[in-house]
Amino acid sequence: MTRLGINVDHIATIREARKAIEPDPVTAALMAELAGAHGVTVHLRMDRRHIQERDVRLMRQLVTTRLNVEMAVSEENLFLAADLKPDTVTLVPERADEITTEGGLDLVRTLDPVRDAVNRLHALDIQVSLFIDPEIEQIERAGASGASLIELNTGAYSEAAPKALDEADPLFLEELGKIVDAAEHARKLDLRVLAGHGLTYRNVGPVSSIPEVEELNIGHNIVARAALVGMGQAVEEMLYAMNGST
Ligand code: PXP
User: Fold this and answer.
1) Residue nearest to atom 12 of ligand 1 (CA)
2) Alpha-carbon distances of 168 from 108, 181, 196, 227, rounded to whole Å
């Protein structure tokens, strides 16, 4: 069975659109756990555009599965991690004006600071996962970083299968092949393999079938579906609040 880590960032995006108190990503995280999710992931971005420190502090107290906090490598973040004590920190690259994480860490260029961050987080008893593209060179460097986990970036795979899944499409097969090869190579180096980014109900099957991939981190598409499958009930409840009947 492949585990599911649910990313609730975009519940917070809806809240922050109005600077309101609802919807609360902490409530969403707990509901996801009750529904069977194996862990909760949040990205504490430098600009705090969605998840706030307050959310992570409450989740730390309330989440009973595993709490994974994605963050960029910085002194400020390492200090925060020591304070927040998530079960796992996933180190990600971050660019201020990106819409979402654009690619994996470039471990060829940044192995030294990443290795230093891994050591410091391990000293705090925090597991470390490295978000990297499915490239052999990156896997090799991840193996040299001291981290025990990697999260393979499925962004290019997801873009190769944007609408319907055409399993005969050469680009789709190429991107899927990169994830399969990267996962196999990582296991040979004793790295545990997770994956995520851009996964949807339509394209998740081939990735969740890769035996080496233990866990998927999925956010946007689950939040998108939750908004729509919940729309009918939400309208009925508003009519009831207005008129005492639907
Ligand atoms: N993994 C990482 C490292 C991410 O940065 C994100 C997006 O925050 C995800 C997984 C989840 O991606 P999505 O929201 O597209 O499912």
Assistant:
1) 197
2) 33, 18, 22, 32
For 88-146, the pLDDT digits (tens) are 999 999 888 888 888 999 999 999 999 999 999 999 999 999 999 999 999 999 999 99
Average pLDDT value over all residues in the chain:
95
Ligand 1 first shell, C-beta below 6 A: 7, 9, 43, 70, 90, 92, 100-101, 131, 151, 196-199, 217-221
Whether residue 185 lies in the annotated active site:
no
The answer to whether residues 167 and 203 touch, using CB atoms and an 8 Å cutoff, is no
Atom of ligand 1 nearest to the CA of 222: 16
Say how many Å lie between the CA of residue 197 and the centre of ligand 1: 4
Closest to 78 (Cα-Cα) out of 120, 137, 112? 120
Half-sphere exposure of 102 (CA within 13 A, CB side): 7
- The active-site residue, picked from 70, 135, 212, 215, is 70
Say which residues have a Cβ less than 8 Å from residue 164's Cβ, sequence separation at least 6. Answer: 202
